[in-house]
Amino acid sequence: LHVRDRIEAAGRILTLAPHHALLELLGRRLRLRARLELGDLTGVDADIAAYARVADRLRSPTYSWLVPMWRGMRAVLEGDLAAGSRYADEVATLAGKAQSANAEVMAWSLRWRIARLRRETRVIDELAGQLAQWSQSAEVSPWLDCTFALLFAESEDPERGRRHLRRLMDA
What span, in angstroms and rounded, lies between the C-alpha atoms of 171 and 156? Predict the structure, then answer.
């Protein structure tokens, strides 16, 4: 669906959501993503705050890890890499409590972006090692190939990145 259609659909979900916390979280998450695509950062910030209020009431890391992930993303967009790092740590902590591989990957992604912006070679190497460990234990998947392609494209081994892209294209 077109991004504006998704915002309207998310709004309809929210009208159905009073007294249904999980439905409200879904509507907020969907609308936040669409607003992000439009660059509506004021709307994104409002949805993060509203999502956080509901997630706080639920007291479940399964839902609450998204809040520091989004706040970390916003901090990085604003150039506050120190705050972004603190939020990445919070996401990682909640990932463990929620036993969420998705949250773990998002914490990794936030840390990786910050390390790239800071040009911290040692941290980038550590994160690449962590990604390599995941690839050993996970099935071959498009997200891993995409991540490796980007990681190696930005490193001193762009040919290795091309190999991952070729594998994606051949799949």
Answer: 26
